Amino acid sequence: MSTLLFFLFFSHLLYSWAFSHEKLSSPMKILDISRRDVLAGTAALITAGSIFNTAAAYDPDPDPVRESLYLLSRVQEATCLQERYIKKKLPPIQKMKLTLKLVDRSYRIQDQINYVSKFIPPADIVQATQAGNEAADALQDAIDFVMASKNGDSLSNEQKEFLLKSLSETREKLLIFVDYLPDRDKLLAARARVEEENKLNIDEFDADLANDAGIYDPIELPWKTKAKK
Q1: How far apart are CA 50 and CA 115, in angstroms?
Q2: N or C: which end of the chain has fewer CB within 10 A?
Q3: Diameter over CA atoms, the chain
Q4: What are the CA-CA distances from residue 158 to residues 85, 161, 225 (Å)?
Q5: Cα–Cα nearest to 98, from 143, 159, 158
Q6: Which residues, other chains included, contact 142 with Cβ-Cβ below 8 Å and sequence gap of 6+?
Q7: How far apart, in whole angstroms, are the C-alpha atoms of residue 107 and residue 96?
Q8: CA atoms within 13 A on the CB side of 67
Q9: What is the pLDDT of residue 160?
Q10: What pLDDT is attached to residue 50?
Q11: CA pair distance 2, 205, nearest whole angstrom
């Protein structure tokens, strides 16, 4: 997987984390920094080990349901990235730890499930919350396993299988969970936002930020994969 793909994914995590971090202190202090600035900071982090910009602008959806669905969609996307890492001959444990920490802190999967559950019909709430909670548990299993691994460790086939199963279950259970939501328009809008932001990130990426950016090899988003089946 190209370094560019990691840059794009990581830059979005920086957007989300910066907003949530700033929001806790003062909503008025969020810095107005462009997406290109965030990408530059991301490249600096990976190639030089430091970030030169202090925060990134992040505009949450004014509709809190769409925002939660957007964050859950980003969780699903993140599981696909982790699967690519795992399938490498020598999985980059340190990079996996970094991205999983940010996924956990920025997207807060359990918080989103708890919130969206309020808008699911009473007749479906038991099945829906079960699927959502199983998704959160599966992701936590993957996070705990990776965090307990040492940088540079190799993974046995059994360990890779465990991680792949946990990530797949997270993704699939979230697909089941959001399908219980009656308002499909909000779900489609949240997914469209992910797709549009990904396109903008690709368009604005400067290959000169990293000398090993390589050829961009995009992840197929989970709901696109499901639509083909």
Answers
A1: 35
A2: C
A3: 54
A4: 15, 5, 26
A5: 143
A6: 82, 100, 163, 166, 167, 170
A7: 16
A8: 15
A9: 93
A10: 30
A11: 13
Q: What is the SS3 assignment for the chain? A: CCHHHHHHHHHHHHHHHHHHHHHHHCHHHCCCCCHHHHHHHHHHHHHHCCCCCCCCCCCCCCCHHHHHHHHHHHHHHHHHHHHHHHCCCCCCHHHHHHHHHHHHHHHCHHHHHHHHHHHCCHHHHHHHHHHHHHHHHHHHHHHHHHHHCCCCCCCCHHHHHHHHHHHHHHHHHHHHHHHCCCCHHHHHHHHHHHHHHHHHHHHHCCHHHCCCCCCCCCCCCHHHHHHHC
This prediction's pTM = 0.73
Phi, psi of 221 (to 5 degrees): -65, 140
Could you give phi then psi for residue 50, rounded to 5 degrees? -150, 160
Q: What is the pLDDT of residues 126-168, one digit of tens each?
A: 999 999 999 999 999 999 999 998 887 788 899 999 999 999 9
pLDDT at 167: 96
Q: Which residue's structure tokens are 């929001």?
A: 23
Query: What is the C-alpha to C-alpha distance for residues 69 and 221, in angstroms, rounded to an integer?
Result: 14
What lies within 8 Å, CB to CB, of 159 at 6+ separation is 145
Q: In the numeric block, which tokens belong to residue 85?
A: 């890492």
Name residue 167's amino acid. Answer: L
9-64 residue pLDDT tens: 555 555 555 444 444 433 333 334 444 444 444 443 433 333 333 334 568 899 99
Please say whether the beta carbons of 43 and 1 come within 8 A. no
Closest C-alpha among 17, 18, 38 to residue 29: 18
- The answer to whether 132 touches 174, Cβ cutoff 8 Å, is yes
